[in-house]
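A reminder from the course coordinator: this example appears on the midterm review sheet, so study it carefully.

Given structure:
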């Protein structure tokens, strides 16, 4: 069991290394309950739709600039994907004043229904702590991906993930959007280039593609053999495969390079 300072190091490392900042605590691949929630308009509506191939949930706060900008971009994404098998909802805590929420909805132009999370039950179920956060599930209500807000090309990132879920984009196409290639420049930091492969490896682990995640980490180490995160994430990938011996070898290699490097919470759970 991980306790005390070990838990703190794990949390710090997860936040520092994750491209998403903080992810929903619910694991990718877990089933999201199709609960019925009150709508801002006064009715009730199901969280998810089994007629959609992608279910998109946007958690936001009406008094937060980042959330307002995220909703503006999601309004554009809604328009871009109009007619596609995508079900959209925005989710707000019941503690937020309804009038403030209505104002933000009008300002941002989202067409999706706004669901009110009574008692923050859904927030707690998914472990949502930071806003805004986009959570994407497939047509079988399996959690596929999460995306934290970023100032640059947020709609592009979310749209690519949705297109991947509905089958319009393959893995290479998704990777191209999430990790756009850049021309090498004189003096470019190879460690930063390697981290792009490490970040993609994390996403591949979430998509249950541990073998491809290992290949990404190996490519990262070819670019820069001293990137501790590549060893850490490769260990997580081996843990996902159930190969704890190799997982622990990679985690040990990571800690030799950086004493703060550690396994993910899921990796530690699989290979304690």
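Designed residues:
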């Amino acid at each position: 069991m991980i306790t005390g300072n070990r838990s703190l190091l794990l949390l710090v490392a997860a936040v520092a290394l994750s491209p998403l900042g903080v992810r929903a605590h619910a694991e990718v691949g877990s089933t999201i309950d199709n609960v019925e929630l009150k709508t801002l308009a006064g009715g009730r509506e199901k969280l998810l739709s089994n007629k959609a191939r992608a279910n998109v949930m946007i958690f936001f706060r009406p008094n937060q600039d980042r959330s307002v900008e995220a909703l503006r971009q999601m309004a554009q994404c809604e328009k871009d994907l109009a007619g596609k098998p995508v079900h959209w909802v925005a989710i707000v805590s019941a503690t937020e004043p309804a009038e403030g929420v209505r104002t933000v909805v009008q300002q941002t132009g989202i067409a999706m229904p706004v669901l009110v999370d009574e008692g923050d039950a859904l927030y707690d179920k998914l472990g949502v702590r930071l806003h805004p956060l986009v959570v994407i599930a497939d047509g079988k209500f399996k959690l596929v991906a999460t995306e934290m807000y970023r100032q640059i090309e947020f709609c592009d990132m979310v749209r690519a993930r949705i297109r991947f879920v509905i089958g319009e984009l393959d893995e290479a196409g998704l990777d191209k959007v999430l990790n756009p290639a850049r021309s090498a420049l004189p003096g470019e930091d190879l460690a930063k280039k390697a981290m792009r492969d490490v970040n993609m490896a994390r996403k591949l682990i979430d998509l249950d593609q541990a073998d491809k995640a290992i290949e990404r980490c190996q490519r990262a180490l070819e670019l820069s053999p001293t990137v501790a995160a590549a060893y850490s994430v490769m260990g997580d990938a081996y843990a996902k495969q159930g190969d704890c011996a190799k997982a622990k070898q990679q985690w040990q290699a990571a800690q030799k390079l950086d004493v703060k490097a550690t396994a993910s919470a899921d990796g530690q759970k699989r290979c304690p």
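DSSP finds eleven helices and seven strands in the chain. Strands lie at 36-39, 44-46, 54-59, 86-93, 114-117, 133-138, 143-148.
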